[in-house]
Amino acid sequence: MRNEQGQEIEDLWIFEANIPGGSQTDLYATGGDEVFVKTDGGKQKLSHTQVIAEVERRKGLQRVEARDPDEDAMYAILAELTRRMQTNEGDAWYPGKEVNALKLVEKMVSRKMLERVLGIPGAYTLPGRIIYPRK
Q1: In whole angstroms, how far apart are CA 73 and each of 44, 69, 131?
Q2: Would you call 131 exposed, middle or buried from its count of C-beta atoms within 10 A (0-12, 13-18, 19+)?
Q3: How far is CA 86 from CA 44, 62, 81, 82, 90, in A?
């Protein structure tokens, strides 16, 4: 490579970078802490409050898109346990032995929606609930 006077430039390195185009759904930040979003007309710089609003809007969209397909079954179990507790019809829930029920229980336990009842194999209850033996 030569400079404007035609002299060869020593210790010059030229790098070529192939940077793919970005997505319309991504936010882009610069080193100067500016945030942009792509638009049909190019790009739009977002203010601090616009960035917060955009992140919150996207969180709301993600919650809907990432809805757990087991959610309805989980809440039905919780509703049934709550009903049993309120009507004194029983405190524990015993899932069926089918694989899907056991996977659902493990998911609920890991999310702290249910707890295992110590000393009663296969029994689950609402978290923090004290189990008294029936008389």
Answers
A1: 43, 8, 23
A2: middle
A3: 55, 35, 9, 6, 9
Give yes or no for a contact between 3 and 11, defined as CB atoms under 8 angstroms apart.
Answer: no
- Cα Rg, the chain, nearest whole Å: 29
129 burial type by CB count under 10 A (0-12 exposed, 13-18 middle, 19+ buried): middle
Q: Tell me the pLDDT tens digit for each residue of 85-106.
A: 778 887 788 888 887 888 888 8
Phi and psi of 86, rounded to 5°?
Answer: -70, -30
Three-state DSSP class for 128? coil
Return the domain boundaries, the chain: 1-67, 71-125
d(CA 121, CA 50): 53
pLDDT on residue 61? 59
C-alpha distances out from residue 37 to 23, 25, 43, 62, 134, Å: 9, 8, 6, 18, 61
